[in-house]
Write a structure and sequence with these properties.
Elements lengths: L2 H12 L4 E4 L1 H7 L8 E4 L3 H7 L4 E6 L4 E6 L2 E7 L1 E3 L2 E2 L3 E2 L2 E3 L3 H6 L9 E2 L5 E2 L4 H7 L1 E2 L5 H7 L2 H13 L2 E2 L1 H10 L8 H12 L5 H10 L1 H5 L1 H4 L15 H11 L4 H9 L4 H4 L1 E2 L5 E2 L3 H15 L4 H13 L9 H11 L1 H16 L8 H13 L3 H4 L8 H6 L6 H16 L6 H11 L2
Organism: Peptoniphilus ovalis
Pfam families: HD, PolyA_pol, PolyA_pol_RNAbd
InterPro entries: Bact_CCA-adding_enz_type3_sf, HD/PDEase_dom, HD_domain, PolA_pol_head_dom, PolyA_RNA-bd
Length: about 450
């Protein structure tokens, strides 16, 4: 336990108040992990907390909920009064709270047993709901009636799934049933809160654990009905030995934990359902699915109020993920780098590699890996590093006697093709001479 935390607990105890660390930090400590932060609960009221720490900077984080932040050595520690929650409104938050002198009452209002433990400064554990036992048995169990806990705050549906995936714990049977039956309550939760939970899951190690549990409980249908359509979808192609949903999930596992890249992996083939056809060869075809998929992913992410930066990157990656021909010249690769952006192109190749690996167990992605290595080399070229690709611009062309209009754009486009093919020709003298010799 950090010295600052012990200091806070001692300071409250010296002033005749009970004080404990509580919740996730206790859980992580018992699991042998170093907590990211420490929440402290106390019998002291907010005004009393401020008085105890009058020599330190304090911030009233939520007066109605009894939380005061104390700044010690530049770190903020939240101290919250024992409380009893009133009736919850719209499955989201209590309409009021009542301060309490009883630690047990405070722990009773928490979500899961593994988060409903407290510890004093001498490391004595207070565990009225057997959270330590559930940790040992690797179970996520609700405090009390799981239906009541989920109806109080429906975001607990996603928190249960996140904790299950994070720790590789099982959902206790009654909690699993309650999540499956009450999943529609998520429609009462703000999209921002939902997306915050989903981001934590999709960027974690092995996101498939969370996605498969979401599918198993029906939560996926509520949050992403567009993905629901991919479950059990047979692609009717010898290049895939998995259903579409399983392919998407596996691809997501195979890329690094960058948010945009993981989202692109999850949604990259989402519109295969919309573009499916059977050709004369008896195989499934999905012409244009990458274009439709980019548009559909934008619609989904706008629904969840993702940032424009994330949305744009996801669209770029999905739109270009099929451009993985068996042979590509340096000219084509330079054009691709400029099209998707040097900041995105290596992630695009990571998506392509993962997509290939997730098709069949015997697929060989070595040719894509080799091409990615060539792209890395091309990224070191001067032209690929500069936002100004050509050594001349429209003003230079006009100085040669050309009038404003379509001809300027045509010349610039032609010159770009020349430089894509041979960057050594990207010098003002050569390009100027080329214009004089080839355009009137």
């Amino acid at each position: 336990m950090p010295l600052d935390v012990i200091f806070i607990l001692d300071k409250l105890n010296e002033n005749c108040f009970e004080a404990y660390i509580v919740g996730g930090c206790v859980r992580d400590y018992l699991l042998g992990n170093t907590p990211n932060d420490y929440d402290i609960t106390t019998s002291a009221r907010p005004d009393e907390i401020k008085e105890v720490f009058k020599d330190f900077k304090t911030i009233l984080v939520g007066e109605a909920y009894g939380t005061v932040a104390v700044i010690i050595n530049g770190i903020s520690y939240e101290i919250t009064t024992f409380r009893i929650d009133g009736k919850y409104l719209n499955n989201r938050k209590p309409e009021s709270v009542e301060f309490s002198d009883n630690l047990l009452e405070d722990l009773k209002r928490r979500d899961f047993t593994i988060n409903a433990m407290a510890m004093d400064r001498n490391k004595n554990l207070y565990d009225p709901f057997n959270g330590k036992k559930d940790l040992a048995e690797e179970i996520i169990r609700a405090v009390g009636n799981p239906y009541e806990r989920l109806r109080e705050d429906a975001i607990r549906i996603l928190r249960a799934i996140r904790f299950s995936g994070r720790f590789d714990f099982y959902l206790e049977e009654d909690l699993h049933e309650a999540i499956s039956n009450e999943r529609e309550l998520l429609k009462n939760i703000s999209v921002e809160r939902i997306f915050d939970e989903f981001k934590a899951m999709i960027t974690a190690d092995n996101p498939s654990k969370y996605l498969l549990l979401m599918e198993e409980t029906g939560v996926l249908t509520v949050l992403f009905p567009e993905l629901k359509r991919t479950i059990g979808f047979n692609q009717h192609t010898p290049f895939h030995d998995k259903t579409l949903f399983d392919h998407l999930v596996l691809t997501t596992d195979f890329v690094k934990g960058d948010l945009a890249l993981r989202l692109a992996a999850l949604f990259h083939d989402i519109s295969k359902v919309d573009t499916f056809s059977i050709g004369e060869d008896g195989r499934g075809h999905f012409y244009g699915h990458e274009i439709y998929g980019a548009e559909l992913s934008e619609k989904i992410l706008k629904r969840y109020k993702a940032s424009n930066k994330i949305i744009e990157k996801v669209k770029i990656l999905i739109s270009d993920h099929m451009k993985v021909h068996s042979e590509m010249t340096d000219k084509a690769l330079r054009r691709q780098i400029k099209r998707v952006g040097r900041e995105n192109v290596l992630d695009l190749y990571d998506l392509m590699i993962a997509d290939c690996m997730a098709t069949r167990t015997d697929r060989d992605a070595s040719f894509i890996i080799k091409r990615k290595n060539r792209v890395k080399e091309l990224l070191e070229e001067k032209e690929m590093k500069s936002n100004k690709f050509l050594e001349i611009d429209g003003n230079t062309i006009k100085s040669l006697g050309f009038q404003e209009g379509k001809i300027i754009g045509k010349i610039l486009k032609d010159l770009e093709e020349i430089v894509y093919d041979d960057p050594s020709k990207n010098n003002k003298e050569y390009l100027t001479l080329y214009i004089k010799e080839n355009y009137r």
